[in-house]
Structure formats: C-alpha cells, structure tokens
Amino acid sequence: MSAWLIYALLSAVTAALVAIFGKIGLQHLDANTATAIRAVVMALFLVGVVVVQGKWSLVATVLADKKALLFVVLSGVAGALSWLFYFMAIKSGNVSRVAPIDKLSVVFAVILAVVLFGEKVSLVAAAGVALITAGALMVALG
Fold this sequence. Notes:
Layout: H1 3-25, H2 31-52, H3 59-64, H4 66-92, H5 95-102, H6 105-117, H7 123-141
Helix pairs in contact: 2-4, 5-7
C-alpha cells in the first residue's frame, strides 16, 4: 500500500474523530470559542511535531518565501473558516448529516484542481466525483 493512501486513510479516520469529539465537546459551549481553543491545541501540537522532528530551523525558509507564505496564510484562513462553519454546523445539526455535506469539499477540490492547475480527470474519476456528490446529498438529505 502506498504511503499517500495510508496517510489519506489515517486522515479520514482522524477527521471522523474530530466530528465525534467535537459534537460531544460542543454540547454546552459556543462553537466559535471551542474552535479557537481547538486551533490553539492544534498549533501547539504541530509546533511540538516540528520541534521533535528537528525541523524548527525550516520555519525561516517558509517565512523568507513571501509567495509561499501568502498561500500558507490563505490556506490557514480557509481552514479556520472551514472549521468555524463545521463546528457551527455540528453544534446545531446531526453529525451524520453535516459530515457528508462537508465531504463535498472533495468535489470542490477536484473541480478547482482542474480549473486552476489543469489537472486531468479521467472518465472513471469524474464518475466517482459525481457519485460522491450524489452520495453526500443522499446521506445528508435522506
């Protein structure tokens, strides 16, 4: 099994745990405040990972590349907005309905990759994207 597939599966499993743990934790809390606390925990954890890996010196490289830094910052803002909206959604809705709609991000990412990067999508992959769309909507709205 390829490393990327193992990482992607681990990402999917841990993302599912985010939804479950988040729903439990949000029962009596403001969603935005809880998301901010979650972000601080994530930042501290990730800084710890970088330090343990001995890669702290690479921070200067990222900061020196202004274009890369801009897009890293924009990605961070997009991620923060995504999680604010996600936590607001699971606070007031069922995880079993919110999570499938959230996974439409896969569909949007594929479309944007084709438009912005000129990535090619095979007929089989396009059918898969269509099925993801149909499946997400069926689970969430059914």
